[in-house]
Amino acid sequence: MILLMTTAPSENAPWYLGRKFPPLGLSYVAAALEKAGFEVQVLDNYLLKKPIDEVKQLVKQLNPEIVGMTCSSSTYNKCVETAAAVKEVAPSCKVVVGGWHPSYVPDSMLQHPQIDYVVMGEGEQAMVELATYIIKGEREIVLGAIAGVAYKMGGTILKNTPKFIKNLDEIPFPARHLLPMDLYERKMEFLDVEPVDIMSIIRGCPFNCAFCETRKMWGPACRFFSPKRVVEEIKYMKDKYGSKGIYFINDNFTIFNFTFKVACCAVSAVKVYAGHMVRPLGKFSSNGTNTIVHRHCSFASSSLLSNSVTSKARGRSICTGVRNHSRSNIMRIFCCRVTVCADFRIH
Q1: Phi and psi at residue 80, in whole multiples of 5°?
Q2: How far is it, in rounded angstroms, from Cα 183 to Cα 119?
């Protein structure tokens, strides 16, 4: 048994994200583990906010061999506290953490004795191989050969270099059936239909923006799920969960001209309302992007970015998108921490 969970936000935390969206990253990992033959349960504690005593009770009841937790910088302390609680009721259980914070600073997690392993970057393949190692032993796989895993050995922290999945279509649909889908806010202010669900269809970024973590987490190259796979998942969402709208939550949706056009055509063929935070990149002119969006999507939001501003201290571009903003405008955006968007709507 493997229990995967999100970490509950700290009480009264200013960084708590009020929107109740399903944890797609954890759901992808759960689906990959199920595909590999493992029994999996998911606790979205970022949503449910169960106290530590209830988490301990659940762990004691399930008696999992592995507990995997997502962790961000804002939930770091709560993640460490939860890991200690797991070890208290199940000392032999292996605790694995992944997500944004562990991927960047795995040492900060492994300094705590209650945390056994860290998964850095994409978790699907790494978690399947790590679970195989923990449950089935070294006869199946060697720990040092598992890409993207950090661990302690003889008092030393060892880190295996992450590798990124080349063919994203190999990853099964997120295991939404393990989530309390009826408790999520399946709506989006940009789309006037309900229910609306979220999807992820691209990973990676070739740019090197100083403010962004996408490149390190998902890799320096953009990888798409195929249009065929995207359509299949949308159809599945319509049939299984009654989805009437889809909101794509990715960066760089328009980076490949042809793929973007094909994806938009594929989505329109399924007859759902679709929305996305679109960053006009590559060879797209803003007018060209808008034309495609108008023709094939119900909604798109185009974020206005600029590569005219650089960080002298770090020698990196603050933003490497299209050149459509003056220095003063883009600095105003960053200082106010507000994303300026141009909205497009099709009826």
Answers
A1: -65, -40
A2: 28
Question: Tokens at residue 258, please?
Answer: 């042809």
Write the pLDDT tens digit of every residue in 193-251: 888 898 988 898 888 888 887 888 888 888 888 888 988 998 999 999 999 888 888 77
Answer yes or no: is 213 within a domain.
yes
Cα torsion 284, 290, 296, 298: sign: positive
Residue type, 86: V
CA angle 57, 61, 63 (to 5 degrees): 110
Residue 52, domain CATH = 3.40.50.280
> Mapping DSSP to helix (H, G, I), strand (E, B) and coil, where does residue 99 land?
coil
3-state secondary structure of 334: helix
| CB atoms inside a 10 Å sphere around CB 88 | 13
In single-letter form, the type of residue at position 22 comes to P
Asked if the structure places residue 221 within a domain, the reply is: yes
Same domain, 79 and 137: yes
Question: For residues 213 and 36, what is the distance between their CA atoms, to the nearest angstrom?
Answer: 29
Give the model confidence (pLDDT) of 66-79 as tens digits.
Answer: 999 999 888 999 99
CA distances from 158 to 69, 120, 137 (A): 20, 12, 19
- Tell whether 327 is covered by a domain: yes
Same domain, 123 and 249: no
**How many other CB atoms are found less than 10 A from the CB of residue 20?**
12
Q: Are residues 191 and 60 in the same domain?
A: no
What CA–CA distance (Å, rounded) separates 83 from 62? 16
Identify how many contiguous H helices and E strands the chain contains and give both numbers.
12, 16
Q: What's the mean per-residue pLDDT of the chain?
A: 78
- Our count of domains for the chain comes to 2
User: Which two three-digit tokens encode residue 226?
Assistant: 């195929």
Higher-confidence residue of 138 and 207: namely: 207
User: Which DSSP helix (H) or strand (E) runs through 27?
Assistant: helix 24-35
